[in-house]
Amino acid sequence: KAAKPASNTELKLRKAWEVAKAPAKGIFMTAFMLWMAGGGINIFSMMITLYAIINPVKAIFTVGSTFSRFADPSTSLMQPKLVFVLVNAASLAVALYKCSTMGLLPTA
């Protein structure tokens, strides 16, 4: 049997899932960079930590424009968007954990 060519809608949905899962590939690199920055409070570790906080927050706030090119009335992009937000939230959690270990977050 010959493979049936995928429709444009299926291709858009597949590409949307690729975009949704893409930030997961960077979580371990971000964690490694934060680990290499050390636990002291200096300009290098602060810059790396700030970078690790700002990028996921920026990605979460621009989720609508990120997925706008995949918009199709016949499919829902709610699941890929949710996965995108959750993966970026996990990346943000790694950065906030680093802030906590550096003593930058207020704790009781």
Please characterize this protein's 3D structure.
This protein has helices spanning 8-21, 24-37, 43-61, 63-66, 78-102. The protein is mainly alpha-helical and 108 residues long. The model has no long low-confidence stretch (mean pLDDT 91). The longest helix has 25 residues, at 78-102. α1 (8-21) packs parallel to α5 (78-102), α2 runs antiparallel to α3 (43-61) and α3 (43-61) packs antiparallel against α5.
Principal-axis shape? elongated
Amino- and carboxy-terminal Cα gap:
65 Å
How big is the Rg? Answer: 18 Å
Mean pLDDT: 91
List the defining traits of the structure above:
108 residues; mainly alpha; 5 helices; elongated
How is the topology of this model organized?
Blueprint: H1 8-21, H2 24-37, H3 43-61, H4 63-66, H5 78-102
Helix pairs in contact: 1-5, 2-3, 2-5, 3-5
Explain briefly what this protein structure is.
This protein is mostly helical and 108 residues long. It is built from five helices and no strands.
